[in-house]
Fold Metal-sensitive transcriptional regulator.
Amino acid sequence: MTTTDADANGRAAAAAARPAPKPDPDPHGAPRTVTDTAETPPAAGVHGYAQQKDAHIKRLRRIEGQIRGLQRMLEEDVYCIDILTQVSASTKGLQSFGLQLLEEHLRHCVADAAVKGPEAIDAKVQEATKAIERMLRT
């Protein structure tokens, strides 16, 4: 096990041991709900990716394996071009995952906002547009 693996595992274990944050109450003491602000995410389990969660986790673990492979390649002094090929494959894997998640967001969250009215859909479309902008910068 490398120092990097130990650090990552230690941080992951510490994060898992922390209790989940409680929702911020409004000035009157009531917890915020999905309808309080456009930026408040939906409750757990109602995200667009919920039905594909296991497949997404499997996919991210495969990408994680590619990243660990990059670390091993460096440790083993593999040829630069071979490492760059693996970097490209890992990057494409993350981009593909991001696009799938974005599609699910549009199908579920934006479509749900459309039912709630023009303000809700405008907020979700703006949110999705900003996410697309961030993805295009990479």
Summary: The two ends are 31 Å apart (CA to CA). The longest helix spans residues 80-116. The CA atoms of residues 70 and 137 lie 23 Å apart.
